[in-house]
Design goal:
Length: about 425
């Protein structure tokens, strides 16, 4: 189907907030910010927001960084340098640079935008799309921007439909019959239901569309307010709901999916959620379609050789069943099931992996048995290591989640080897 010629995405800038610490992922974010965490065999989490913007027709983007940003900046520099300034295309990296006061970094999500007003002005855009850089989903932002313009709203907020009992962990929208937002409540104990569907609630996705001139005025007023926390969810959005017009945009209206598929959106902010979302990709028909050539997830692609499987004896066979194996991997005499291995993973004979998420450049020695595990980048797994069979033993050396997933980092391996 041909897209309308009067598209709004080319008149829009995408501003990606990618500075959060992501502390719930524990040691996975000790050396990298959450949007830079690996996902899906070859991607980083931030690639989903950026790819959605690119596929939607947006060619002006900025990524605001703050904590532990080196890994994220390096990834963007390697994988997202195809924008052409002569075509009026940009992707700017905006670190917190204390531009206004030496003691002030980004004080909140709204402040991250406010401190870069002059840069956004230079983009000469009509609309600004604020995105969180740490969620997994596929969405056509053009649909949301068009609804925003047609509704005449001051802000349009992307919303998920979730069971009311689960909405207590979100910012929740109370709406009328036209989806105009009447209340905005942060993690309410008793979330308001949807008119006509009281068993469900509308939860904020952290996606906002504004007219730039309108948002610019509000940001300047917010910066001058000493009582503000300078945050969209805490300050600007409630103020617009109370005194302006805020409109809800339902994710189901713009989610990119097969017609029979359920809308897919994941916050992979905990170890259990991160492991589950990666392992789900090994299903026969995964809910997240990474093979869709019409809506690709762009990223930095290393030049790697194909994956290689060697040895073929009953007790020493390189094999992978219901698994995803990235380029550069060598599976030597190892049995792998329901697992996801990133680039340049080496496994050695007589080992077995079951439901393992293995980040790049890991080496697994002989005679290991690993189950329900996440292995951080560059870890050297020693010979004979058994993880996933005795949670009490695992917890002595490694991070074991509430759901029984074990995280292994090199520091943990070093402490274990030093303590044996």
């Amino acid at each position: 189907m041909a897209r309308p010629t009067n598209r709004l995405a080319p008149r829009t800038m995408a501003f990606v907030l990618a500075g959060g610490r992501g502390s719930r992922l524990r040691e996975l974010t000790h050396n990298r910010v959450k949007p830079s965490v690996y996902f899906g065999g070859k991607n980083r989490i931030v690639d989903f927001a950026l790819s959605n913007a690119l596929n939607s027709g947006i060619r002006k983007m900025a990524v605001a960084t703050q904590y532990k940003a080196h890994s994220l900046i390096r990834h963007i520099q390697r994988g997202w340098t195809f924008f052409r300034a002569e075509r009026n295309e940009f992707l700017d990296i905006l670190p917190a640079s204390q531009r206004y006061e030496e003691s002030t970094w980004y004080r909140g999500t709204a402040d991250a935008v406010a401190q870069n007003i002059d840069i956004i002005d230079s983009y000469n855009v009509d609309y600004i799309l604020i995105l969180a850089g740490d969620h997994i989903y596929k969405m056509d932002y053009e649909v949301m921007i068009r609804q925003h313009v047609e509704s005449g709203a001051d802000v349009t907020i992307g919303c998920l439909t979730v069971p009311r009992r689960e909405a207590t962990a979100f910012g929740v929208m109370g709406v009328d019959e036209t989806d105009r937002i009447t209340t905005f409540l942060e993690k309410p104990a008793n979330p308001p239901g949807i008119p006509g569907d009281e068993d469900h609630a509308l939860a904020s996705m952290g996606i906002y569309v504004f007219d730039w001139t309108c948002l610019r005025e509000r940001l300047l007023a917010d910066m001058a307010d000493p009582h503000s926390s300078h945050d969209f969810g805490n300050d600007l959005i409630p103020e617009i709901v109370a005194r302006g017009k805020a409109q809800a945009h339902r994710f189901t209206d713009s989610c990119v999916r097969h017609p029979e598929a359920e809308p897919y959106w994941r916050d992979v902010g905990t170890l259990d959620a991160y492991w589950r979302a990666n392992i789900d990709l090994t299903d026969f028909t995964p809910e997240l379609d990474l093979w869709d050539r019409d809506w690709p997830i762009w990223t930095y692609s290393e030049n790697t050789p194909p994956a290689k499987f060697i040895h073929d004896r009953p007790d020493r066979r390189g094999s992978a069943v219901s698994s995803m194996i990235a380029g550069g991997c060598i599976i030597s005499g190892t049995e792998i099931r329901e697992s996801l291995l990133f680039t340049h993973v080496r496994t050695n004979s007589y080992s077995s992996l079951e439901r393992v998420v293995c980040l790049p450049h890991v080496n697994i020695a002989r005679h290991c048995r690993l189950k329900n595990v996440v292995i951080d980048r560059g870890v050297q797994i020693p010979a004979g290591l058994v993880v996933g069979e005795d949670p009490e033993v695992d917890a002595k050396w490694f991070r074991v989640s509430e759901g029984g997933v074990t995280l292994i980092t090199q520091d943990m391996i070093d402490r274990r080897d030093g303590g044996l």
